[in-house]
Write a structure and sequence with these properties.
This protein is of the alpha/beta class and 309 residues long. The chain folds into two domains: 2-211, Rossmann fold (3-Layer(aba) Sandwich), CATH 3.40.50; 221-286, Peptidase S8 propeptide/proteinase inhibitor I9 (Alpha-Beta Plaits). 33% of the residues lie in helices and 31% in strands. It is elongated, with a radius of gyration of 24 Å.
């Protein structure tokens, strides 16, 4: 069942900015990753989902309701973490939490307390004296304290330290296990890789690729490293691989007798049958990396994050 749906949505801000003809569906109980560099249009699309922005063309619905005409219902029921958090600076964290509890008509503070503990939020001080990371944590706690079924998270880990980023990823996984539907935007491959079932890549306002991660894994070449015990067998195996269409020799080192081999999942049994006749002393698979797979969509890398242009 589709919970969030965008159909041919366009918002043109001029000069090539905005989102253009964007379509995707988020199904119930799944995590949908919306991946793209800064300025790609992630926040614009998310603001349409939340009913903060009206599309020029196309339709956005949540649970079958038009987002724009039902904006207040949607904003009340969804858990929303904005990309840029604006909080009332003069309140303390605790006062803000209480205010949000009253607004959301949350009477039981059990979940709220759990969230405060899980994210190590220190809520007693004034918001204006909080670090950026602490403000993000406060926004996270208040976004999820009413235990919404649908979560819309705009770059949720930005501003969090690495430990908290990991904790947030764990939180998303737990929420998914509890049956929640989650739309998550990010510019970090690893984060999307770790949490999402379906992924769309957006660049310059256009979706350039949409895929299901399990389906992608099924059709992606697997890569294995192996070492052969002696030179004679090493040479024989290399020859066998070079004449076999199902298996691809990616790298060989005659000194160390190491090989790197590529093989599609559908040809794995052929590969294993060939190997059975050889004295293999080590064998391991290089895990699939979404980042490497999509390296073709960008030209530059900066640290662990991506510069997409
Ligand atoms: N209200 C607006 N008016 C004009 N341009 C905007 C507005 N909001 C966003 N943009 C532009 O649209 C593009 C996409 O922005 P945004 O959706 O915030 O990207 P992202 O969230 O992926 O970083 C950017 O070039 C941005 O400057
Ligand atoms: Mg954004």
């Amino acid at each position: 069942m589709t919970v969030i749906s965008l159909e041919n949505v366009t918002k043109d801000y001029g000069h090539g900015r905005g989102i253009f003809d964007v379509s995707f569906n988020v199904k119930k109980g799944t995590v949908y990753g919306f991946l793209g560099p800064n300025g790609a249009g992630k926040t614009t699309a998310i603001r349409h989902v939340m009913g903060f922005s009206k599309s020029q063309r196309g339709i956005v619905t949540v649970d079958g309701l038009d987002s724009w005409t039902n904006a207040s219902t949607i904003q009340e029921s969804l858990g929303y973490l904005p990309g840029e958090v604006a909080l009332p600076e003069n309140l303390t964290g605790e006062q803000f939490i209480q205010m949000m509890m009253d607004l959301r008509k949350v009477n039981d503070d059990t979940r709220c307390k759990k969230l405060i503990e899980f994210f190590e939020l220190e809520a007693s001080g004034k918001i204006k004296r909080m670090s950026l990371g602490m403000k993000r944590k406060l926004a996270i706690v208040t976004a999820f304290m009413h235990d919404p079924d649908v979560l819309v998270l705009d770059e949720p880990t930005s501003g969090l330290d690495p430990i908290m980023q990991q904790r947030f990823i764990d939180f998303v996984k737990e929420e998914k296990k509890r049956g929640k539907t989650i739309l998550l935007s990010s510019h970090i491959f690893t984060e999307v890789d770790a949490t999402c079932d379906e992924i769309s890549i957006i660049k310059d306002g256009h979706l350039i690729s949409s895929f299901n991660k399990q389906e992608l894994l099924k059709i992606t070449e697997k890569v294995f490293n192996l070492t052969i015990q002696n030179e004679t067998h090493f040479k024989q195996l290399v020859q066998k691989i070079e004449t076999n269409e199902a298996i691809h020799l990616l790298f060989k080192n005659e000194q160390t007798k190491e090989l790197q081999i590529g093989c599609y999942p559908s040809d794995l049994s052929k590969f294993i049958k060939i190997l059975a006749d050889f004295p293999v002393s080590s064998f391991n698979e290089i895990p699939f990396s979404l980042e490497k797979h999509f390296m073709k969509f960008y030209d530059r890398r900066v640290g662990g994050e991506l510069a997409w242009q």
